[in-house]
Amino acid sequence: MARMIGAEMFFETLIHEGIDVVFGLPGGYVLKVYDVMPRYSDRIRHVLARHEQAATHMADGYARASGKPGVVLCTSGPAATNTVTGIATAQMDSSPVVVFTGQVPLPYLGSDAFQEADHIGITRPCTKHNYLVRKTKDLPLAIKEAFYIAGTGRPGPVLVDMPKDVLIGEDEFVIPDDISLRGYKPPKKGHPGQIKRAVDLILAAKRPLIFGGGGLLWSGASEELKELVHRLQIPVTLTLMGLGAFPADDPLFISMLGMHGSYAANMAVHDCDLVISIGARFDDRATGGNFAKFAPNAKIIHIDIDPATIDKNIVVHCPIVGDAKEVLKQMLEMIPAKVKTDRKEWMGLIKSWEKKHPLSYKQEGDKILTTYVIDTLSKITDGEAIVVSDVGQHQMWVAQWYRFKYPRTWITSGGLGTMGFGFPAAMGAKFARPDKMVVCVCGDGSFQMNMQELATAVENKMDIKIILLNNGHHGMVRQWQTMFYNCNYSASKFDVLPDFVKLAESFGAIGLKARRPEDLEATLREGLSTEGVVLMEIFVDENELVYPMIAPGGAMNEMILGPEGVHLENMAEAADMA
């Protein structure tokens, strides 16, 4: 058995786990890791981020685009605490990110040493698991277990805290062949009895609806989903996190559901007689938040790999704990290859809702509408790009108007709603999928939160496109102030903004601008076809609002359809419920 120091064990174990990219920043207690790093540079690429939060979002974007764990390396104290927002983002959206932090030497723990922080205590609420490694010989096992936990079951972030003396210490290097953790046995297949019960409910339903979430993507269940849908002619709606799991151009796709979902999708949920939820957790943004009024006439099947999500928000009739891909395979085995289904009435009703209140916009006047930007982007790229959005109005418009065809081509922060996520996550996605066009769609507010990573993008000679939608405001905040707070625009307008094109150029990137609708398409085509880091600043109408909208606490059929649309009786009370 070879003997080596902990820093060498770190890289040898990463290589054993198939890791080829690490996002990070050096600092005092991980300097030994960086000291040996050049020896491994031919097998592991290190991306030097400008901020640890951004590094964690990069790792998250890498994980979502590739399906493989993303890796972060940083030192202790402020470096580790800077990762917490990224860790919480990954936790909420079930992304397998492994964060390695340096720590003060073991004898100094608890002494308030320089840059000491309780990384374990701080991150315990927002990680799937975390480790403090106390012996050099235990480091390979801790790392291997971290990747196993992060990538199995419901994926999630894991933190490994590495004291300096563990990294400089020497011992025999041993990697276990297999991992077996007592009390942690993630399920794969669903219970056969529950599968049979679910199939019976599906075959008996007249107005069934599939309600798909991000779990479909993590399990790789898109092909099985398409087979089930086409065999039984069941319409599909997806949550914000599930987009791409089913092709947007399929006639059985109804668009996104939820707070800013389409009228047809939300009405279909409200009026169906069976909800087949796959890999979704019934959160308030997907259901409107009024759980008591959710799908009042329907029985509910809930398929999820995480037993903690079952009956958490909504009590269901047929729970199935298991991996979505495996459970769908089990269902397909029980369902005859050819089934007589009559969905004409049900699909006709859905089509009538689509016709009654379609997603629509009217580009007129001198100001560019964001909906027009996203619709044009979708048409130019033919839905083939990986699109990474930040958080805000533009995020909802991308979800509504970009027609995603494939899994892992839509990346955004859903559960935590993390502004500043988009640009670094897009960089991570590009490192994962260098063959694909990657487009970051962000707002002027969100881009400012991690715009320093332009330096990282240029330094790494990335071919990445940024569409920066400048409305001079925190747009979603302004929308809520318009709708719920009597147009009291408190602290939502930017009195000072940089010239984003000059900013991009100062980093060595390419900058373009569009101010008028007639300039938009040419600007997008030029920016998307120009190699390198390209920022396209698009000046958009600050008065445009995202519709439809379910006010917080509303039911799925209680939508605000436009400025003169249906409103709940007490809008201020609804806002306070958010």
Q: Roughly how many Å is the radius of gyration?
A: 24 Å
Topology, number of strands: 20
Instruction: Give the helix level as a range of percent.
Output: 25-40%
Mean pLDDT across every amino acid position: 95
The share of residues in extended strands comes to 15-25%
What would the keywords be for this entry?
about 575 residues, alpha/beta, Rossmann fold, 3 domains, six-stranded parallel sheet, 24 helices
Describe, in plain words, how this protein is organized in 3D.
There is one protein chain. By secondary structure, the chain is α/β, with parallel strands linked by helices. It folds into 3 domains: 3-172, Rossmann fold (3-Layer(aba) Sandwich); 192-356, 3-Layer(aba) Sandwich (Rossmann fold); 370-539, 3-Layer(aba) Sandwich (Rossmann fold). 37% of the residues lie in helices and 16% in strands. It is built from 24 helices and 20 strands. A 6-stranded parallel sheet has the order 3-2-4-5-7-6, sandwiched between helices. Strands 11-10-9-12-13-14 form a 6-stranded parallel sheet, with helices on both faces. Helix 13 links the parallel strand 12 (274-278) and strand 13. The longest helix is centred in the N-terminal third of the chain and has 15 residues, at 52-66. Residues 566-575 have low confidence and may be disordered.
